[in-house]
Amino acid sequence: MSHPQATAIAAPQLRDPAWIGRVFWLLAACVLIAPALVVTEFKPWILFEPDALKSTKRFIADFFPPKIDREFMLMVAIECWRTVAIATAGMALAMVIAIPLTLVSTGALSVSALSGRMHTLPLIVRQAVRWLLIVLRSIPELVWALVFVRVVGLGPTAGVLAIALTYGGMLGKVYGEILESDETHSTRTLMRNGAGRLQAFFYGLLPHSAPELTSYTVYRWECAIRSSAVLGFVGAGGLGQQMDNSMKMFQGSEVATMLIVFMLLVALADQVSAWLRKSLA
Amino acid sequence: MSEHKMSGHKDSAQAANEAWRMPPKLFSARCAMCWFLCGLIVLTVASFWTLDLQWAKFLSADALRKMGRFLGELLSPSTDSAFLLKLLRAGFETLAMSALGTLLAAIAGILLALPASRSHAADPAHWRAPTRLVLNALRSIPELVWAALLIIAAGLGPFAGTLALAMHTTGVLGRLFSEAVENAPPGPGFALRARGVAEMRVFCYATLPQILPQLLSYTLYRWENNIRAAAVLGVVGGGGLGQMLAFHMGLFHMNETSSILIAMLLLVALVDALSYVARRVMQK
Amino acid sequence: MRVSLRGLSARHPAATVASVPALKPVTLDIAVGEQIAVIGPSGAGKTTLLHALACALKPAAGSFTLDGVDPWTLPVSQLQKLRGRLFLGPQTPPLPPRQRVITAVLAGRLPRQSLFASLRSLIYPTGIAEAEAALTRFDLAHKLWDRVDRLSGGERQRVGLARVLLSSASLWLVDEPLSSLDPARSRLAIDTLTAAAREAGATLVTTLHQVDVATRFPRVLGLRDGELHFDLPAAQVTPERLRELYAQHEHELLGAPADGGDTPPGPPQTPAMYCR
Fold this sequence. Notes:
Chain A is an all-alpha fold. Chain A has helices at residues 4-9, 19-39, 50-61, 70-105, 120-138, 141-152, 156-181, 185-192, 197-231, 239-248, 252-280. Chain A is 76% helix and 0% strand. In chain A, α8 crosses α9 (197-231). Chain C has two domains: 1-85 and 169-255, Rossmann fold (3-Layer(aba) Sandwich); 94-168, no CATH class. Helix content of chain C is 32%, strand content 20%. Chain C is built from ten helices and nine strands. Chain C has helices at residues 46-53, 76-83, 101-106, 115-123, 128-137, 153-165, 183-200, 211-214, 239-245, 250-254, and strands spanning 3-10, 23-30, 35-39, 61-66, 86-89, 171-175, 203-207, 219-224, 227-233.
């Protein structure tokens, strides 16, 4: 207590120094949230207006019991399979898009970079491919689906193409990151000894990063199942399309069944994907 | 006889070497990778087989011409000032939807995370299983499906979209938050519980200050996701840019569509940048 | 608070019923306002004894009363009320990293505060003067508004001790209060602690690694392998008795290993992914 330092500091202030800042940020948050509430027409009470409440009640009451007659369940089962099939086919095409683009864009497979800096042309090509991947993945799959529904009509083709393009972009980016993050010493040694790019990929890069690549692909497949169900809402086939139809017809019992089936499907995909990733690791 | 014995002995010695020298069989029942690959191929072939994919239609001259025209028009975005003003408004609407939806979800998520977590070893946590079930249900229904459902109760427009985002995000954040609560270091909470302090106060004074940075980081991460989701929610009538997109694309106004797409990309980039700045500020 | 143990034994909550208890049957009486140091080598059951006294650990056998009442026969609400009159200070200061010192100290009054009052105090701290006075006694008043994770290990430990001054508890149980303090700070901390307990009329039980500090307490308990080795006035704690207590653990007698919680916790992990 007799430290000169302690006496120099003197009595600390007995008012909270953070108080002004807190009040300021609270006010700032209010100023920001107020227009957001206006713009989004945030009026929770309209949920409880008699009209809205009546239609909600009718729709919800219709949920019980969910429709489970044989014909309908068969249709749901088929649509479930179509949802999974759209996701799988989309993923297969996405890999067809992503793998070559990854191989082109990976700096680890650059021959010119072996001796100092990468040459200008390969650099431009790699950058261009990266930009292409960015464009592919930053347009949501739903937008691609809207475009393709206009071109090829309603049905699963649009869904498969939409997933293929968006997920191709995502896979290409992440594959590239996984390959780049690996230790490139063995690959470079192979290429210095005269191996071709593809040979160096199969003997140097792939063995090391295969588990991570597979794991990420399986995980994406799980995501693709979720989004293929959603794509149905714009007419790209599968469970989503049937759900959209039933909602438009206010068939609560059908919607209830399909929601439950969809949740089970997602949970199943989740389990399968987690199990696969664990057993392949 | 003895020769046979000799050779047999030799054989077994050789076999011991052989097994070591031979590569493992390519296909064995225990080989997880083989089963995985087989399953994969069967699944993929079956998928292509059962879906009546219309490649002919997609690759027909007519469709390709259509695609070409779309692409050509997409390259010249509309810059009509009245349209851009509408676009600005829709963009702000989308931003507001995503921010408000995330905020609501963060509040609901923290309220649900408390019953959904076992905060200390002796906590009976009766509500843990039912609350987690609710969170899982909220989470497994995508935003778009929530929007389609909520439009019945809330009517077309951004309000339904905001609620839809909030619903799905509550499920995600509630789950993440409850895991954060369970993984928080137990020391500070133990010291307060040993003095008979009730759970709510223990949470505010011991658990929350430890996990707050993590909660904020999860919330920002979800906001980045939600801006992407909010941009397309309008396609089913949830307001914002998506609604404009569905409208103009339905009428084949590709120039306007192009502007809307650019606005979406800019908005996503803006939110990513804001979130990045917020993270940096928080780390200080 | 008057404490009485009759053949009390305790084991860790995770231990099986068949295992050897961490604390073998102990019989002990502590009068109101007494000040006791508990010493012994690592793993002797010092912390287990404190946890049992703090009603944080249910005894495996034997009886235990506080002011003549067995806490474990009380209904839960009564037990919680009783716990509010105890203070348990763990060895690593139980302070959330990003909390401010003032809030961490004020958390000492939580048992006697309503939920509303405690939430209000989070928005704007009430009782600043009280916290400042407590910190001043530990020579830390200038850190009142700092964040806990910006303090050194020793400072954090003193913040943890300052909390006891706001607790208005009548039985103070402090575990290794000096483990990350230098000798000068140790003397200040222990003098403050004993003086404050005397002023509050509280009973003080503290475990210590520093034998020289322990012998300044009027009464010293020696624990070894979960058993009460001696229970003597400080004057009778001879070097022979200490050597016996610390047999095979002599290095701890010479210089206690300082294992204070000096490592700040790492940054939060990156969020788990949910598609997109």
